[in-house]
Write a structure and sequence with these properties.
The chain is an alpha/beta fold. The chain contains 14 helices and 13 strands. Strand 5, helix 5 and strand 6 form a beta-alpha-beta unit. Bound molecules: pyridoxal-5'-phosphate.
């Protein structure tokens, strides 16, 4: 094709920068977690996955699988339409009530992914508010940023978790203008947690709405896994809580919860909600089952936290530069795309450990990292082996060690 050379040039520059993305071709077999089969260029090899977002292994939970299989047999593979045109299954309605109940909100709305939930909701909401300004944490997820862009509203980016900067930005705005503060509870690449209460105080003081992404917190934190806002008793002070079923819940799909008028408006106006086929009833049924399990049973969560503690200790002992920031996510900054790739290659080739390098634009340049996530199925021996492997790789590549 006549234009191909242009794409090839773009790809060459990605490769030169060391951030050309190579996907690991995996088979995560049920009952084998945290092992997976890696289809490498040299053949198939068994590796331990150390970077999954399936934090509790719920994607392989027997009841979650059973719900999906059972619902498929009963209702078929697809929903058969958009939500408006024959694609609202009873399972959608039930799950929307469930998420609203989980977060103590009046109404819930399901989207095909967490990404779409953020983009569609933020763009729709902000457009409805005349002359709205959106205050956005600088480390917000791409889906929030896209939502803000699509809204066409003015945006002010405040420094990450920086209350003084947020206050300063709020105080320079016309008090009469509508304002929306968009932020995240657990930031996925740093593993740190937002000062939610203080942000709510600022929102009250300056009459702003609050929009909180709890994607990495639901299922893991707070009573019944409702997230960080729930853990702190702050759900009532957040106007819109967004999350998904794809991380701790181990399935797929996104949602928002909020007041009846707000959610009903998004339902009625958001293009990314309206003009797309709804999730298959089987996906919805298994997400529902996963959420129900994690509302009642904290055993898996408790196991996760004990593993997180063990992994932190082991990393500290190895002196690799990991900076735990209060959540279950443990990032180790390598600081250069090529070196980060080399770390991951050595781990995979020589230690049968799979972690994916995290590069720009997911993190800023110079902040390239690996992001470790442990699950209940990782044993103490696996944690020790990971520590040994990191020590080996850090020494061989002569990388920075913490004091
Ligand atoms: C993964 C993620 C999303 C997107 O959710 P999907 O269901 O994967 O589309 C949104 N926000 C944050 C913070 C995320 O990490």
């Amino acid at each position: 094709m006549a234009y191909d050379h242009i794409f090839s040039e773009h790809l060459s520059s990605l490769k030169a920068e060391g951030r050309y993305r190579i996907f690991a071709d995996l088979e995560r077999l049920v009952g084998e977690a945290p092992y997976a089969l890696w289809h490498s260029p040299k053949g198939v090899k068994k590796v331990i996955v150390w970077c999954t977002n399936d934090y509790l292994g719920m994607s392989q939970h027997p009841a979650v699988i059973e719900a999906m299989v059972e619902a498929t047999r009963r209702y078929g593979a697809g929903s058969g339409g958009t939500r408006n045109i024959s694609g609202t299954a009873h399972s959608h309605v039930t799950l929307e009530q469930e998420v609203a109940d989980l977060h103590g909100k009046e109404k819930g709305l399901i989207f095909t992914s967490g990404y779409i939930a953020n983009e569609a909701t933020i763009s729709t909401l902000a457009q409805a508010l005349p002359d709205c300004v959106i205050l956005s944490d600088e480390k917000n997820h791409a889906s929030i940023i896209q939502g803000i862009r699509a809204s066409g509203c003015e945006r002010r980016i405040f420094r990450h978790n920086d209350l003084a900067d947020l206050r300063e930005k709020l105080s320079t705005l016309d008090p009469k203008r509508p304002k929306l503060i968009a932020f995240i509870s657990v930031y996925s690449m740093d593993g740190d947690i937002a000062p939610i209460e203080a942000i709510c105080d600022l929102a009250d003081e300056f009459n702003a709405m609050t929009y909180l992404d709890e994607v990495h917190a639901v299922g893991l934190y707070g009573p019944q896994g409702a997230g960080i806002a729930a853990q702190l008793g702050l759900q009532g002070r957040i106007n819109i809580i967004q999350a998904n079923f794809a991380k701790a819940y181990g399935v797929m799909g996104g949602y928002i919860t909020g007041s009846i008028p707000l959610v009903d408006y998004v339902r009625s106006a958001a293009s990314g909600f309206i003009f797309t086929t709804s999730l298959p009833p089987a996906v919805v049924a298994s997400a529902y089952t996963s959420m129900r399990i994690l509302r009642q049973d904290t055993a898996l969560r408790d196991q996760l936290w004990s593993r997180v503690g063990l992994l932190k200790q082991r990393l500290e002992k190895s002196r690799v530069p990991c900076q735990p920031a209060g959540s279950h996510i443990l990032p180790i900054v390598v600081g250069n795309a090529g070196r980060c790739q080399a770390v991951c290659d050595l781990l995979r080739e020589e230690h049968n450990i799979y972690v994916q390098p995290i590069n720009y634009p997911t993190v800023p340049r110079g902040q390239e990292r690996i992001r470790l996530t442990v699950t209940p199925s990782h044993t103490l021996e696996m944690i020790q082996q990971l520590g040994d492997a990191l020590e080996d790789v850090w020494h061989r590549l002569n990388l920075y060690l913490a004091a």
